[in-house]
Design a protein that fits this description.
This protein is mainly α and 201 residues long. Among the domains are: 45 residues; 89 residues, Winged helix-like DNA-binding domain superfamily/Winged helix DNA-binding domain (Arc Repressor Mutant, subunit A). The protein is built from eight helices and two strands; from the N terminus they run ααααααββαα. It has a two-stranded antiparallel ribbon. β1 and β2 form a beta hairpin. It is elongated.
């Protein structure tokens, strides 16, 4: 136990030295240490030709392949829940997150092209999952809200989505999931800000 503590203190000291111009915390060090240990585990699974690829490139490749695996499962899921696409579920959920938004707000929130977003919204309206009504402040705009049928549909899908998410991340420990969520959340916030700025121009 004593040797382990000495090793941990030495590693923390080394981390401080490597980041001498940055204020580091115990939490920062713990995340760095866990990430370093996990990278050693991942190293043996990496194809030989990847060893010359930058770390960012390796992350991009892994994220892209994972997205494809999830997308395949999503297409199966869409059939299971009797929706044309899983994107329709995201649009239904956005009406709760945004509290009866305009169509433009929904499309921006779901990060869609305007024409494809309008197509999704119109399909949901025709299925009676959404209903539109005039905006009180801007008569040219339309707002949308969930119908009782839409709310029932949305809530019936949540357990199925949860099961899918559990399967996707089943191999990760709770600590790994929390670290991954923090990292992805940081990236999401960064790119969301860039996306918002681009739309304001």
């Amino acid at each position: 136990m004593k040797n382990n503590l000495v090793e941990l203190v030495n590693l923390f000291h080394q981390y401080q030295e490597e980041n001498i111009h940055t204020e580091v915390s115990i939490a920062d060090f713990c995340k760095h240490y866990l990430a370093s240990e996990k990278m050693r585990e991942v190293e043996k699974y990496k194809p030989n030709h990847e060893k010359s690829i930058s770390l960012e490139g390796q992350i991009g490749r892994a994220a892209g392949r994972l997205a494809k695996f999830v997308d395949m499962q999503m297409k199966i899921l869409a059939t299971t829940i009797e929706m044309d696409t899983v994107e329709e579920v995201w649009y239904l959920g956005s009406t709760l997150d945004l509290k009866n938004p305009t169509k433009s707000d929904m499309i921006h929130y779901c990060i869609s092209e305007f024409s494809s977003g309008i197509g999704v919204i119109n399909r949901l309206i025709s299925k009676k999952y959404l209903e539109e009504y005039p905006d009180e402040l801007d008569k040219r705009a339309k707002r949308v809200r969930l119908t009782d049928k839409g709310r029932e549909k949305l809530f019936s899908v949540y357990p199925i989505l949860q099961e899918l998410a559990s399967n996707v991340y089943a191999i990760l420990s709770v600590d790994e999931k929390e670290i991954l969520y923090q990292i992805l959340g940081k990236l999401e916030k960064y790119h969301q800000q860039k996306y918002d700025n681009s739309k304001q121009k």
